[in-house]
Design goal:
With 184 residues, this protein is α/β, with parallel strands linked by helices. Helix content is 39%, strand content 23%.
Length: 184
């Protein structure tokens, strides 16, 4: 299974890839991860490849071959949709984070993105706030991903909880459960 995780710097995409990697290893699969940061520290695009299988040789996912795209921001989902294979799926947060050209007035945030995406949108930011902190949006998305991919919920949640600071466990458990309940 090839999963592309995309978002904006600071959204927790790298944590999400570590959680997926830990889950896959715990289930006995080979897993390879590769990260592309770009200008992530300045709110730029972040892309992480996660490849899971019996034997994985390369961490890179080619355009048009991703089984799944997990997007933490909807413009990023659109930006990387060409990585999806024809029968692939997209799960995206409906959150809008304005890129620098929009902030400076050089461009406008695109309208109608949802109409261009053939995937499932989750209001991860609102659910994270309901859990106690906007930074838990990545855990919301991981909960939704777990359900969409029919992963073992307890094992996936355990992988998440093993990758986060002890003091945030309750909040992230709540966020994960809210994300899991948000999708069919």
């Amino acid at each position: 299974m090839d999963i592309l995780i995309v978002g904006v710097g600071g959204q927790g995409t790298l944590l999400a890839s570590r959680v997926l990697g830990k889950y896959a290893l715990d289930k006995g699969y080979d897993v390879k991860l590769s990260e592309v940061h770009g200008m992530a520290q300045r709110g730029g695009s972040v892309m992480t490849y996660v490849r899971i299988g019996e034997k994985i040789a390369s961490p890179i996912i080619d355009e048009g071959s991703a089984d799944f795209i997990l997007a933490f921001e909807k413009l990023e989902a659109l930006r990387y949709a060409h990585y999806l294979k024809p029968d692939g799926k997209i799960l995206y947060s409906t959150q809008e984070i304005m890129p620098m050209p929009v902030v400076t007035g050089a461009a406008e945030y695109p309208q109608g993105i949802e109409k261009k995406l053939t995937g499932t949108g989750v209001d991860a930011l609102s659910l994270a706030l309901q859990a106690g902190n906007s930074k838990a949006a990545n855990s919301v998305m991981l909960g939704a991903l777990c359900k969409k991919l029919n992963f073992d919920r307890d094992a996936f949640e355990a992988a998440l909880l093993s990758c986060i600071p002890q003091k945030t466990i309750d909040m992230n458990k709540t966020a994960f459960a809210l994300g899991y309940a948000a999708v069919e």
